[in-house]
Amino acid sequence: MPTTSSRDVLDRVDREQTNYLEELKDYLRIPSVSTDPAYRDDVLRCASFLEEKMRAAGLQTEQISDGKGYPLVYGEWLGAPGKPTVLFYGHYDVQPVDPIELWRNDPFEPTVEGDLLVARGATDDKGQSFAHLKAVASILAERGSLPVNVKFIVEGEEESGGEAIERFVRKDAGKKLAADCVVVSDSAMYGPGQPSLLYGLKGMAYVELKVTGPNRDLHSGSFGGAVTNPLNALGRIVDRLRDADTGRISIPGFYDDVRPLEDWERKEFASLPFDAEAYKAEIGVPEVFGEEGYTTLERVWARPTCDLNGIFGGYMGEGAKTILPSWAGAKVSMRLVPDQDPDRITELFTAYVEEIKPPGVTVEVKTHHGAKPVLVETDGPLVAAACAAMADVWKPPVRVREGGSIPIVGTFSEVLEVPILLLGFGLSDDRLHSPNEKFNISNFYGGIRAMVRMLDRMAEAG
After folding, report:
1. For residues 10 and 452, is the Cβ–Cβ distance under 8 A?
2. Would you put residue 433 in left (φ > 0), alpha (ψ -120 to 50) or beta?
3. CATH of 7-201+373-461, one of 3.40.630.10, 3.50.50.60, 2.40.110.10, 3.30.70.100
4. Does CATH number 3.30.565.10 belong to domain 203-258+304-369?
């Protein structure tokens, strides 16, 4: 244990944890859905709520906006000269709640179910990043000062592309955000009670494909068999994106820049406990499937993907309507691995669907957003301090990759050139982006305690 005890602050966390949970519930009640303009006022209200919580904790705060997107909420406490500076990152926006009918309760009325807090944003990312703030608030309330310097930057567009923070970080060039490390909690532990140090995130190329045929919907009896049906054409295109037998993505050039897994990575992944039957049972599938030659963990963490996220067109109401639709569309996400470039992958996708489209239709590809894949260092005194802090609360973390994307992490790594500590408090069954998203309340409290220990340990490491 470090010579600087955290007992005083941890006792306060124990006393205040019910209050912290109620504050988190208030945070979750704000429907900050950044992808839907109808929620704009709520997203802005959420930013103000968070800023007030930072200010109440004892931080100097401001909202940063260039007028083009949702504001960044910034806070700082810089009263520890000569000590390391820790930059905490998070996001206050959340995913849409659809399909609403699958939620057990109102997604924006947090519900306690035993150890679970169920609400949209509970784990992604309000609950996890709020643990950072409550750790800092606890130390300041108990001691009146922090052992290190801290900064917070919390964005409102992570679920809709992250353009505002991307612009700011590159413009700031490490001035306001200068730090000795960045701490991000927007991921999962490897398992209950088993924390992980995440060192790899996938990138993203997200596109929308539109296939257009006739200039209006046509009567399927009068025109069927004489005109290419855009929905049929879309089905043919989608079917040719991936080999149904091998799981390989069929886009020419797609794998050209994929960095192979290192031998040590495959060995470490294989050494982790993984219950394939429990995995299938938890998500309700009879069998897993993916690229030949790779395990489930390797496919999810370190191999690229191409997935249909939605398909639409034609008549989708109740009953029958016999039409040949004018157009059909699909949303497609491609998760990328080092050293794939999202712009290049989008170009390859666009060229391929143009090449394979059936006669009688045109195709249009619209880019929504992208992110570069990233690998981060897992060595150094601050990394060691963070890992020891997680072990203080749970056990030593294991090294893992993640199939998801956090767009700003690669930019932080490139611009700030400091260690990025990806330390999640969630679990793989938290149903993020799905109905009945949840966060284990014990992990919320554990995350606060781990961050208290981390800041004390970093003070000694620095």
Report:
1. yes
2. left
3. 3.40.630.10
4. no
Q: Tell me 154's DSSP state.
A: E
**Residue 154 pairs with which residues in a beta bridge?**
73, 90
Q: Which long-range contacts (CB under 8 A, 24 or more apart) does 59-65 make?
A: 59/136, 59/150, 59/152, 64/168, 65/164
Among candidates 163, 187, 198, 185, which has minimal Cα distance to 411? 163
List pLDDT tens digits, range 374-385.
999 889 999 999
101 DSSP 8-state letter: G
DSSP, collapsed to helix, strand or coil, labels residue 373 as coil
Residue 112 phi/psi, 5-degree rounding, is: -90, 125
Q: How many Å apart are CA 410 and CA 424, to the nearest integer?
A: 17
Residue ranges of domains in the chain: 7-201+373-461, 203-258+304-369, 261-297
pTM: 0.84
- Give the rounded distance of the alpha carbon of 100 from its chain centre: 21
The rounded Cα 215 to chain-centroid distance in angstroms is: 39
The separation between CA 211 and the C-alpha centre of its own chain, rounded to angstroms, equals 30
Backbone angles phi, psi at 293, to 5 degrees: 90, 5
Q: How many CB atoms lie within 10 A of CB 21?
A: 18
Distance from C-alpha of 156 to C-alpha of 162, rounded to nearest angstrom:
8
Stated as kind and residue range, the H or E segment containing 314 is none
Kindly indicate the confidence band of residue 406, based on its pLDDT and cuts at 50, 70 and 90: confident
**Runs of H (alpha helix) within 80-125:** none
- Say if CB 294 and CB 198 are below 8 A apart: no
d(C-alpha 76, C-alpha 153), whole Å: 9
The dihedrals phi and psi of 31, each to the nearest 5 degrees, come to: -80, 75
Do the domains 203-258+304-369 and 7-201+373-461 match in fold?
no
Scan for tokens 């894949």, then name that residue: 373
Residue type at 319?
G
CA distance 330 to 353: 12
How far apart, in Å, are the Cα atoms of 175 and each of 155, 261, 291, 416, 418? 18, 35, 43, 9, 13
Each residue's pLDDT tens digit, 430-461: 999 999 999 999 999 999 999 999 999 999 99
Query: Can you tell me which residue has the tokens 């394979």?
Result: 356
Residues 212-270: pLDDT tens digits?
999 999 999 999 999 999 999 999 999 999 999 999 999 999 999 999 999 999 999 99
Q: How far is CA 415 from CA 168, 406, 410, in A?
A: 11, 15, 9
Q: Identify which of 32, 36, 28 has the alpha carbon closest to the alpha carbon of residue 119.
A: 28
Contacts of 245 (CB under 8 A, 6+ apart): none
